[in-house]
Amino acid sequence: MVALTIVAFALTAVASSMSQMIDAANSMRDRTYASWIAQNKLAEIRLEGTMPEVRTTSGELEYARTNWAWSAVVSETGIESFRRIDVSITHVDSDYVIRTVTGFIGEPVRPGLANEAWRPTQAPGGPTS
Fold it and tell me: Is 118 within a domain?
């Protein structure tokens, strides 16, 4: 009888431990997916090629067979042509924010403009070495 009691307690402890490990794995999976979704949303905003307005936008999407909700808050930074974007990710019908990713965006410039600083320039008398 004592051995049966010990086995029962041991199995309860093992089941509890496995449940905690499964919960931790699911939580890590959700945080990873939420981070990817938020980074994708930041990339989409940057690729629009315009300076975003100071406002809040939101939407829903399906990713990895799960429905997610996102919210992007664009705010001023104190620098005129520079904005902060906070993208928060939740499950649809949940208020718990799984992940918030912050990014920044500046006034768009002509593609390749940043590379011109690295190109040699010509002096008035001819090419430079």
Answer: no
